[in-house]
Design brief:
This protein is α/β, with parallel strands linked by helices. 36% of the residues lie in helices and 18% in strands. The chain has twelve helices and 14 strands. An eight-stranded parallel beta barrel has the order 1-2-5-6-7-10-13-14, surrounded by six helices. A two-stranded antiparallel sheet has the order 8-9. Strand 6, helix 8 and strand 7 form a beta-alpha-beta unit. The chain is globular. The chain starts with 5 loop residues before the first helix and ends with a helix. The relative contact order is 0.12. This is Glycerophosphodiester phosphodiesterase. Pfam families: GDPD. Keywords: Signal.
């Protein structure tokens, strides 16, 4: 074989590099985000919530420091319409208050201690720094990490948070999160996702599903909101109906110890342009099993464990 002269080879290499650079320059941040969803994503569930109080700055800072792909969070509204980062419908479990979160103003929510409970429940991971942790607003999270992080946001209990979608999209636009490829919006409620789409159809959406045994027939699996049939009955058309508005699907792997999805489900979803993200996986053996099944990402309270496997 005749060897190409070095100077020619170098020239061709430079040309190829320039072409690649030009192609990348033509890819918008939002388009790049969607491409990235085809590779494996490490999603820090409420931050590094196995190591620090969930949904607090400490949990998100730890996850971000470790280099996760997404910070996952739940968006709700205070009684005065502020978007706050909090999972439960009530504040009892993870604060020193009680009652519905929507009954409190932001000022009242800010007065709560959302960290001490973690120290009491997890003495081996306790830290004096966690005590007195304040509930976060979405603005605070965005202002702290900016465009250096990506955010995986659930519209939590939209029926209890009227106006949540409008408030959320307003914040995403205000902080330039959409066009910069910084955000995914997820929900179990299809209507909530469609509302977000109506407000801004550039927001990438993830349809969450929850499979569990039917009350009528324990051997048959059904989906919580009925957005799809059970995994055994789901068809390409069912997946395509989700793909019409969503860029991915988030699903449970187990229900009460029983496996509800398998590699065939994952492959079928992917063949219908729906990357599969599985929640919430904390044990290394299950992480490995799901990675072997070819899933596109995992939600976990222990992103350090998952990052070790990915690396």
């Amino acid at each position: 074989m005749q060897r190409r002269p070095l100077i020619v080879a170098m020239s061709l290499g430079l040309f190829a590099g320039a072409a690649t650079t030009a192609a990348l320059a033509d890819t918008s941040p939002l388009e790049q985000q969607l491409k990235d969803l085809q590779s494996f994503q490490v999603i820090a569930h409420r931050g590094a919530s196995g190591h620090a109080p969930e949904s607090t700055m400490a949990a998100y800072e730890l996850a971000h420091e470790w280099g996760v792909d997404y910070l996952e969070l739940d968006a709700q509204l205070s009684s005065d319409g502020e978007v706050v980062v909090f999972h439960d419908d009530t504040i009892d479990r993870t604060s020193d208050g009680e009652g519905a979160i929507n009954d409190y103003t932001l000022e009242e929510l800010k007065a709560l201690d959302t960290g001490t409970w973690f120290n009491e429940a997890n003495p081996d991971s306790a830290s004096d720094d966690f005590a007195g942790a304040q509930m976060l607003t979405l603005d605070e999270l965005f202002e702290h990490f900016g465009h250096d992080a990506r955010y995986y946001i659930e519209t939590k209990s939209p029926q209890l948070n009227p106006g949540l979608e409008e408030a959320l999209v307003e914040k995403l636009e205000e902080h330039d999160m959409i066009e910069n490829g910084r955000v995914l919006v997820q929900s179990f409620e299809q209507d909530s996702l469609l509302k977000v789409q109506e407000l801004n159809d550039d927001v990438p959406l993830i349809q969450l599903v929850w499979y569990y045994p039917s009350e009528e027939d324990d051997s048959t699996l059904v989906e919580w909101t009925g957005v799809t049939p059970g995994p055994a009955e789901i068809t390409d058309e069912d997946f395509q109906a989700v793909a019409d508005y969503a860029v991915g699907i988030g699903t449970n792997y187990l229900y009460d110890g029983r496996q509800v999805i398998d590699a065939d489900f994952v492959q079928q979803a992917q063949e219908n342009d729906l990357p599969v993200h599985v929640y919430t996986i904390n044990e290394t053996e299950e992480m490995e099993r799901l990675m072997d099944m070819g899933v596109n990402g995992l939600f976990t309270n222990y992103p350090d464990r998952l990052l070790e496997l990915v690396e």
